[in-house]
Design goal:
The protein is 31% helix and 16% strand. It has 232 residues and is α/β, with parallel strands linked by helices. It has a single domain (2-118, 174-221), classed as Metallo-dependent phosphatases (Purple Acid Phosphatase, chain A, domain 2, 4-Layer Sandwich).
Length: 232
């Protein structure tokens, strides 16, 4: 089976439960994770460790770059201060998960792993990306516009630009009921981000996984220990 999920944001317990208990992922399955592994939630390092371990153990786990992943990488490389784009609680929690006091001290293997992440993946029937595409751009630019692929929130889907394939993305949290409707209608563009990290919001607070073969939707509620953010 092929599964897609997105926007883990440090929610290790929830993600692990989804993978091991709900999906019961095997090495014959493929899991596509559409970015934003870091920040906001309690265990950024734990999420990265788990993803890297799954890959090392021979699981077919394919990961994309998200905007938060890029922001953490750029902060660690000294390209822009992390404090410019995150709250103090988020900043402290992310660094604490690595056991460091500065982004520059995040261990290099994590940074190299993030650096190697692709922006998108194309399957025979789906195109996967973190945020979406700017369908107003010329076709030759649309698939290479990193800013929109990582950050866009509003776009008008055009299946002809994807050769009739459906788009699966994350980045813009939507209520679980909204996602259920999208899946039931088999919409051309599916936003899988149900705001797992926002544990106080009953309309969100779930990690969603879509079976790309059967269209079965799995919603796993946030089961993290309490952490000092997550209100939306």
């Amino acid at each position: 089976m092929r599964y897609a999920t997105t926007d883990l944001h440090g929610c290790l317990h929830t993600f692990r439960h989804l993978v091991e208990q709900r999906l019961r992922l095997t090495r014959e399955d493929a899991l596509y994770v559409l970015g934003d592994y870091v920040n906001k939630g309690p265990d950024t390092r734990g999420v990265l460790d788990y993803l890297m371990q799954l890959q090392a153990d021979g699981y077919q786990v394919h990961c994309l770059l998200g905007n938060h992943d890029l922001e953490l990488l750029e902060a660690a490389r000294g390209k822009r201060p992390m404090a410019n784009w995150t709250s103090v609680a988020d900043y402290d929690m992310t660094l604490r998960s690595f056991g460091v006091e500065r982004t520059e001290d995040i261990p290099e293997p994590y940074l190299r792993w993030i650096e190697a992440l692709p922006l998108s993946l194309e399957l025979p029937d789906f195109v996967l990306v973190h945020a979406g595409f700017n369908f107003r751009l010329p076709p030759e630019q649309m698939r290479h516009d990193r800013r929109s692929m990582l950050n866009i929130k509003d776009f008008t889907f055009d299946a002809s630009r994807l050769q009739g394939k459906r788009l699966v993305h994350g980045h813009n949290p939507k209520p679980t009921d909204y996602l259920r409707r999208q899946v039931k209608q088999r919409s051309g563009a599916i936003d899988l981000d149900t705001g797992c990290v926002y544990r106080h919001n009953p309309e969100l607070c779930h990690l969603a996984a879509l079976n790309l073969d059967t269209w079965e939707l799995t919603l796993q509620e946030n089961i993290e220990p309490p952490y000092p953010i997550g209100t939306r």
